[in-house]
Structures are given as C-alpha cells and as structure tokens.
Amino acid sequence: MLDLDLSGPTLDVALGINSQVKMDKKTVTYYPVQAEGLSVMGLGLLIDRDRLLIWSGEQRFNAVRELYTRTKWDEKTDFLVIDMPPSSAEELKILLAEIKPDVCVLVTTPSKLAYADYIRVKTVLTFFKIKFLTAVNMSYDKDMQPMFDGFYPDEDYLQIPFDPNSAVKFSLDVRNVVNRILELSKT
User: Fold this and answer.
1) Cα(112)–Cα(149) distance, rounded to whole angstroms?
2) Is the Cα dihedral 160, 165, 74, 58 positive or negative?
C-alpha cells in the first residue's frame, strides 16, 4: 500500500505502525514497513506525525514520483493499493501521469459532500477510460439510512464497514477490496 495523501498521511496511523521506513542512503531506496501482512509506504513513515507539509504542485509531483519509483516492493507484490486524499486534483493528475493505474477504487462515505467529490473523480477516471470500483465506507452509517441522502452510485458498489479502531480489521477490509479489484481487472 502506498499512501499518497501528501498533506495529511495517516495510513500508518490506521494500521498502527509506529516505526519508520528503512532507507538505503547510497541508492536512495526505501524499504516499506510490514504491517498486518501488507507492505506499506508513505510520507507518514518518513516524517514526524505532527508535521504538516505545504508543498507546491512541483514539490508534490516530485514527492509522488520518488515514493513510487524509489520504493523497493517485495518481489511477491502482485498489485499496488494507493491511498489518496478525497478529490485531490493534484495527486490525481500525478497518479494518472506517472503511475497509470489499471483499476481504481473510489472510497466514499454516505454523505452529499463525499458524493460530490466521488462524482468529480469518477468523471475523470471515466474520461481516461480507467476501470474503477466504488467502495462505500460504512463506518459512518452502518444502517445505510439514507445512502447518499437519496443519491446512489450508478454502478455495482461494495459496502465496507471500515473500522478505524482496528488495524487487523482494516487489513481485512483492504484485502476484501483488493479481491474485488482483482475480479474487476480480469474483465
């Protein structure tokens, strides 16, 4: 998993990781941290947790490129899950230009504001002909009453009861999403 939320990286917090990434200073190679059976990399593993990064577009672009190209993923890695902030145009532009994903997962919550962000990103992915799966984070509304305040995703979507208080449960939720991604990538 690669955390590309550059302003507020928190994947390390969600997975309960308290160590930092190891780095080979000669080759500037990062070695991801192992957590709950996942290899994890992100800025949150390189900087102090209380630090806020206020970067320009070029600095963000270079950071994403470095995190992606200089991380030595395990040879058993079959796919890369990238966590991004909601509706971040800069990170999305970098993702599409540098990483060129085969499949994306749009995670949203059942609210009007989140749904508005979801629609914007969905439109971009559709334009670039990138397959995507919609996952609805149900930790906010376990009964789905009402889902998206009357709006519903128009494609098949996956309901996920993400539990931010359990790193083990979070890891299983991620694996559930990954299994659906693999199914989608075969179509």
Assistant:
1) 6
2) positive
Q: Which of these, 95, 93, 94, lies nearest to 81 by C-alpha position? A: 95
Amino acid at 10: T
Q: Which domain does 114 fall in, by range? A: 101-187
The CA-based dihedral angle spanning residues 47, 49, 50, 52, taken in that order and rounded to the nearest 10 degrees:
50
Q: Residues 83, 44, 13, CA angle at the centre, nearest 5°?
A: 75
Residue ending a domain, choose from 73, 94, 115: 94
pLDDT digits (tens, 9 = 90+) for 127-169: 888 888 776 665 544 454 444 444 455 555 666 655 555 555 5
Nearest to 25 by CA among 90, 91, 70, 74: 70
Claim to verify: residue 40 and residue 124 sit in the same structural domain: no
